[in-house]
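Lab notes, practical 5.
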Amino acid sequence: MGRITALFKADGEETAGGYSISEWWLEPNTKGPGTHSHPEDDIFYVLAGTMSILVGTTWTDAAPGSFVLIPGGTTHDFENRGTVRAGVLNFSTPGTFEPHMPGIVQWFRENPPGNAVP
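Output from the prediction step:
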């Protein structure tokens, strides 16, 4: 997805729909998917770099080891405003997220991620 990479570690089919686990990596100075919401709960665990994460109306700069819970239906976004690659481990429950990935990939083809910092 341009400057964003997602790798699924466990999908809903493997977990009987209970959850999915994926890694998301953003290159330096990369906007994320944009403000959105979905019915699944999201849990982000920051692996590397600093990921700026929007929950509701509040942005937080989450350092490695940070844990961010986003309840289903809550508006959120994420981006890498830093100068090094940033990654998060994402837990999504229930595990109904990955069937949306083909549409998300197509959206990023048509709307490549821009710069997070002007």
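Observations recorded by the TA: The chain has one domain: 4-110. The helical segments are 101-110.
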